[in-house]
């Protein structure tokens, strides 16, 4: 039986005149595991929300959606709640109670089940997901991974026939994400629940998938098995191919599309690579191309100790680190290890009870702000009804001419690829589009030190390359960039230095190749696939070069105004001279 049948579905948000989804037609069979992927803003989340009418966005809809052979509009609220489970991106947005046991029982209570049924379902669900060890804890005590597992468990307690997940691991570290996706796989294989998931971590989720639905330019461009979808995207020269699992990308680049099935998992990729290395010449990797930076310190933390409550445990324990002007540094580590807390110390949002923080300004006229932060949740920056209004809101209270405001906004919009989104409400944008919009808003205040908390979550592989180029351009202008990230694939290529946080302090650091090649668990798919075969390879490009002696050209041609955003029109625009000029914007912390 078909769980879903979607016929000629089209949708547009109010007053945009642009279809986010165009003539979408496909079906999902009972018990299938379907992955939906595509560039940021292609309509993935919009499509998933239409599969549960209670969550459908407001707009102009045409076409038909059938659920278990009935029009989905005929489902009652109770049927939707019990039969269609939905897990959102942010764990915080879905938890509604204060205790773990109550969260597990809440959905069942809302559906009116009797106490005996609720107790039985909750006990069974807690055991299946391994929640019994923290069953009576407050949800505030849980890590991000535990909260997302709790969300999943509370939905599965209602025994839905389909489980829909919208980028559920976007805020989880790699190990927690793997554990979460393993739970989803168990639900599909052991319970026979239909799973429809949209994800950017395709290395983890594609091996679990029966079929992959690719949406590009708001239409379906491929829908088939993972192996066949990879070939289709490669033949189309699609940018979405850059998001495919590392074994698939490496195989396609090295073998030039031979007739054998391409590997999708790390074990199958390792087996193929081992056989290839035995029969072909392998090339020695070239030295890393590390972005140059100044020797002058921009940020210095010396023996920092911090706790959120006077009687609580220390979050930072003797943390010491130095970041140099014009450097791009990535901080990695598990949830709850103190990464975001360190950013809050640097921007003075929190103060340590011991230790010293030193921030060294550049004192150049092209900067308005000393330190700015792009927060983990970009929605906290949006205040207006349209994105364009939100961008201009940055200048409220600042003595800047109308012409200069327009010049800066135009440059920021072009730089972050927001031209088609300016008239949209910020909350109607996809997760990746919100990240780009928030970045544009932060750049408009022209900071000397830019702190980024999970900036690549929700971004597609194509824009990640452009995002790295933006950071490089900022570095060339003297701007220091410090990024907290769980995106190991991104961090293995672009930063000049990577730091590992554990238990409130830095336990290791090095260039990307040195950092990741020595790791076994906290590493990239390419590194795990090539370990013992190619020394120090950490990215797909490293492995491809070792096999072919050629670098894969994945740079994207673009004309960006980059550095122009950090130039003043000194002939026509008087320089603001007041104390506010070099202050941190508290509203952007």
Strand order of the largest sheet: 6-7-8-3-9-10
User: What distance lies between the first and last C-alpha atoms, to the nearest angstrom?
Assistant: 51 Å
Total number of β-strand segments?
19
Q: Structural class given helices, strands, pairing?
A: alpha/beta
Indicate the percent of residues in helices.
25-40%
Q: Quick check: average pLDDT? A: 86
Radius of gyration (CA) equals 24 Å
Principal-axis shape equals globular
Low-pLDDT sequence parts: 556-562, 570-589
Q: Sheet with the most strands?
A: 6 strands, mixed
Percentage beta strand: 15-25%
Total helix count?
A: 19
What attributes characterize this protein structure?
single chain; 589 residues; alpha/beta; 6-stranded mixed sheet; 19 helices; 33% helix; 21% strand; globular
3D structure, described in words:
With 589 residues, this protein is α/β, with parallel strands linked by helices. Helices cover 33% and strands 21% of the residues. It has 19 helices and 19 strands. Strand 1 (2-12) and strand 2 (19-29) form a beta hairpin. It starts with a strand and ends in a 41-residue tail after the last helix.
Secondary-structure blueprint:
Blueprint: E1 2-12, E2 19-29, E3 33-37, H1 44-50, E4 60-67, E5 70-71, H2 77-83, E6 84-87, H3 100-110, H4 115-129, H5 144-156, E7 162-166, H6 174-191, E8 194-198, H7 202-205, E9 211-216, E10 219-224, H8 226-235, H9 246-255, H10 266-279, E11 297-306, E12 316-324, E13 328-332, H11 339-346, E14 354-359, E15 369-374, H12 387-393, H13 402-415, H14 431-443, E16 447-453, H15 461-476, E17 480-484, H16 488-491, E18 497-502, E19 505-510, H17 512-517, H18 525-530, H19 540-548
Parallel strand pairs: 3-8, 3-9, 6-7, 7-8, 13-17, 13-18, 15-16, 16-17
Antiparallel strand pairs: 1-2, 1-4, 4-5, 9-10, 11-12, 11-14, 18-19
Helix pairs in contact: 3-4, 3-5, 4-5, 5-6, 9-10, 9-19, 13-14
């Amino acid at each position: 039986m078909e769980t879903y049948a979607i016929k000629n579905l089209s949708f547009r948000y109010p007053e945009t005149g642009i279809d986010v989804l165009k003539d979408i037609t496909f079906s999902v069979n009972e018990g299938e595991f379907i992955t939906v992927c595509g560039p940021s803003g292609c309509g993935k989340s919009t499509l998933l929300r239409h599969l549960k009418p209670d969550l459908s966005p407001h707009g102009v809809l045409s076409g038909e959606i059938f659920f278990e052979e009935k029009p989905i509009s005929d489902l009652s609220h109770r049927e939707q709640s019990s039969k269609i489970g939905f897990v959102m991106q942010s764990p915080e947005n879905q938890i509604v109670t204060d205790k773990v046991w109550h969260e597990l029982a809440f959905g069942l209570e809302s559906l009116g089940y009797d106490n005996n049924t609720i107790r039985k379902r909750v006990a069974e669900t807690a055991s299946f997901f391994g929640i019994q060890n923290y069953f009576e804890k407050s949800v505030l005590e849980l890590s991000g991974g535990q909260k997302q597992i709790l969300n999943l468990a509370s939905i599965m307690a209602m025994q839905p026939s389909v489980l829909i997940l919208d980028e559920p691991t976007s805020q989880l570290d790699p190990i927690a994400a793997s554990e979460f996706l393993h739970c989803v796989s168990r639900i599909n294989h052991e319970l026979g629940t239909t799973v429809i998931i949209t994800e950017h971590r395709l290395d983890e989720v594609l091996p679990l998938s029966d079929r992959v639905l690719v949406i590009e330019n708001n239409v379906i461009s491929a829908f088939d098995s993972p192996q066949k979808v990879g070939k289709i995207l490669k033949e189309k020269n699609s940018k979405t191919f850059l998001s495919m699992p590392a074994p698939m990308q490496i195989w396609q680049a090295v073998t030039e599309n031979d007739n054998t099935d391409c590997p999708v998992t790390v074990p199958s990729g390792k087996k193929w690579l081992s056989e290839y290395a035995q029969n072909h010449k392998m090339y020695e990797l070239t030295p890393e191309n590390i972005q140059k930076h100044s020797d002058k310190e921009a940020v210095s933390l010396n023996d920092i100790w911090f706790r959120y409550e006077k009687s609580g445990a220390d979050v930072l324990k003797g943390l010491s680190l130095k970041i140099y002007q014009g450097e791009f540094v990535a901080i990695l580590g598990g949830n709850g290890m103190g990464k975001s807390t360190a950013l809050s110390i640097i921007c003075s949002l929190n103060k340590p009870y011991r230790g010293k923080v030193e921030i060294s300004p550049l004192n150049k006229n092209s900067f308005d702000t000393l330190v700015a932060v792009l927060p983990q949740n970009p929605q906290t920056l949006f205040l207006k009804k349209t994105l364009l209004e939100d961008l201009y809101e940055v200048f409220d209270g600042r003595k800047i001419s109308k012409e200069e405001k327009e010049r800066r906004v135009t440059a920021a919009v072009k730089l972050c690829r927001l031209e088609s989104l300016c008239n949209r409400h910020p909350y109607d944008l996809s997760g990746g589009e919100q990240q780009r919009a928030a970045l544009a808003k932060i750049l408009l205040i022209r900071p000397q030190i830019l702190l980024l908390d999970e900036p690549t979550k929700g971004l597609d592989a194509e824009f990640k390359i452009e995002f790295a180029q933006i950071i490089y351009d900022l570095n060339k202008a003297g701007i220091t960039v410090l990024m907290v990230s769980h995106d190991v694939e991104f961090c293995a290529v672009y930063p000049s230095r990577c730091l590992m946080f554990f238990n409130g302090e830095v336990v290791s650091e090095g260039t990307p190749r040195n950092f990741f090649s020595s790791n076994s668990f906290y590493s990239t798919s390419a590194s795990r696939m090539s370990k013992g075969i190619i020394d120090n390879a950490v990215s797909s490009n490293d492995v491809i070069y070792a096999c072919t002696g050629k670098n894969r050209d994945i740079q994207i041609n673009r004309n960006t105004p980059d550095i122009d955003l950090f130039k003043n029109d000194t002939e026509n625009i008087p320089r603001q001279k007041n104390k506010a000029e070099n202050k941190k914007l508290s509203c952007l912390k």
